[in-house]
Amino acid sequence: AERAAKAAGDADERLAGMEQKFSEEAERHGRDVEEANARVVELEGLLAEGQRRLEQVEAKSAEAVAERDRAVQRAEAEEHAAQQERTRSAEVQEQFDAMRARNAELEEATARERA
């Protein structure tokens, strides 16, 4: 009976030790879970901030592309206008040269008539 009581006492001590060990592990696990959850919340915040910044960059990029497209259109319109002006200038120069040639012909004819 004494041995049985001693064995029961030893078993109770081992059981108490195991319960203490499991309790400590459960507490550690609980803290680990809390820390992991806090980190998840932090990472979700960082992800949201990153997403917001990405959207801002995308918006600025789209704005820059639109501005570039407008600048290209302006440059093309200015080039077109300049080409039209060069064409018109060449036409005016041709008319002027034709008038000068006609004037020279008239002066020659007038000089011949006087002579």
Would you kindly provide a written description of the structure presented here, covering whatever features stand out?
With 115 residues, the chain is mainly alpha-helical. 98% of the residues lie in helices and 0% in strands. The protein contains 1 helix and no strands. It has one helix spanning 2-114. The mean pLDDT is 95.
Mean pLDDT: 95
Would you tell me the structural class of the helices and strands? mainly alpha
Instruction: Write the element-wise H/E pattern from the N-terminal end onward.
Output: H
- Proportion in helices: over 70%
Q: How can the largest sheet be summarized? A: none
The tally of strands reads: 0
Shape: rod-shaped
List low-confidence stretches.
none
Number of helices: 1
How much of the sequence is in beta strands?
Answer: under 5%
Q: Could you give the distance between the termini? A: 166 Å
Rg measurement, Å:
49 Å
Topology diagram in text:
Elements (H helix, E strand, L loop, with lengths): L1 H113 L1
Task: Considering the chains and any ligands shown, give keywords for the structure.
115 residues; mainly alpha; 1 helix; 0% strand; rod-shaped
Provide a quick synopsis of the model:
This protein is mostly helical and 115 residues long. 98% of the residues lie in helices and 0% in strands.
